[in-house]
Amino acid sequence: NAGVTQTPKFRVLKTGQSMTLLCAQDMNHEYMYWYRQDPGMGLRLIHYSVGEGTTAKGEVPDGYNVSRLKKQNFLLGLESAAPSQTSVYFCASSYVWVPDGANVLTFGAGSRLTVL
Amino acid sequence: KNQVEQSPQSLIILEGKNCTLQCNYTVSPFSNLRWYKQDTGRGPVSLTIMTFSENTKSNGRYTATLDADTKQSSLHITASQLSDSASYICVVSPYSGAGSYQLTFGKGTKLSVIP
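The joint structure predicted for all components is written out below.
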């Protein structure tokens, strides 16, 4: 099925370790986003991309880096993981810029990260 | 600061009954409001999207209403089914010309439908 695929689905890290979450979409969407979801909070935007080769900071970018080398992939990296980064991470994509008009944001199934 | 408040936090209803979830927002200027359904362990899935000029939108047994004057929206679920058990998230988009790039997400209402 077409959609947004995230890998891995689960990961446990020790403080200070690094890792990369991969997001892949097969809908030829121009825009991609990384969110985190924490208990008792709404989803918060970490970084986003408006096209291949572009990235921009969202609401909570500190401690994360991203890359969009190919249009279909958006990578989220943690260089030195901290317990505060324990969260569920969602990748999403859209055909047009989401705040403009009634267009749909398609989410992946999420990646649950635990930092000990 | 843009905010989206949802109520109730959680709700338990019997299968077959109707329910209404509330969303109040302070996002201004406002572009559109969305309702998403998030099953446990899954990503959110779009139910409805309403622009500021629309006051009702239906998707099967789900009906969303919007009052842009009072900045309130509701999601009404008719004849609930066990598969409706999920979190329902209200999301508000600012008008992008105002310079904001991001959506404001509510914390969600957790609905449990029991037999």
